[in-house]
């Protein structure tokens, strides 16, 4: 829950599966936005099939079930 994850690299793929179910919506949004800081434009974010990003203000769009892509 740190303000920064202290990761300097950017990634083409991030797997974040079956974790968000433990957070409330504001925390989910904050965590996803922090992860996306390290996701390259056009990169993919994979979440668990039971997890939803609906209604969150985040820089990724759905491309398949549980798969999201960051804009270029």
Brief overview, please?
The protein has 72 residues and is α+β, with helices and mostly antiparallel strands.
- Average pLDDT value? 94
Radius of gyration: 11 Å
Poorly predicted residue ranges: none
Number of helices: 1
Strand percentage, roughly?
25-35%
Helix content: 10-25%
What oligomeric state do the depicted chains represent? single chain
Gross geometry: globular
The helix/strand class is alpha+beta
Number of strands: 4
Characterise this structure.
- The model has no long low-confidence stretch (mean pLDDT 94).
- The protein is of the alpha+beta class and 72 residues long.
- It contains 1 helix and 4 strands; from the N terminus they run βαβββ.
- The chain has a 4-stranded mixed beta sheet, with no helix packed on it.
- β3 (60-64) and β4 (67-70) form a beta hairpin.
- Helices cover 17% and strands 33% of the residues.
- It is globular.
Question: What secondary-structure arrangement, pairings included, does this model have?
Answer:
Elements: E1 11-16, H1 25-36, E2 39-47, E3 60-64, E4 67-70
Parallel strand pairs: 1-2
Antiparallel strand pairs: 2-4, 3-4
């Amino acid at each position: 829950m740190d303000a920064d994850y202290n990761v300097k690299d950017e990634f083409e793929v991030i797997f974040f599966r079956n974790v968000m179910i433990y957070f409330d919506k504001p925390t989910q949004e904050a965590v996803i936005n922090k992860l996306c800081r390290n996701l390259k434009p056009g990169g993919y974010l994979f979440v668990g099939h039971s997890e939803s990003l609906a209604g969150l203000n985040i820089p990724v769009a759905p491309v398949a079930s549980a798969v999201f892509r960051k804009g270029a």
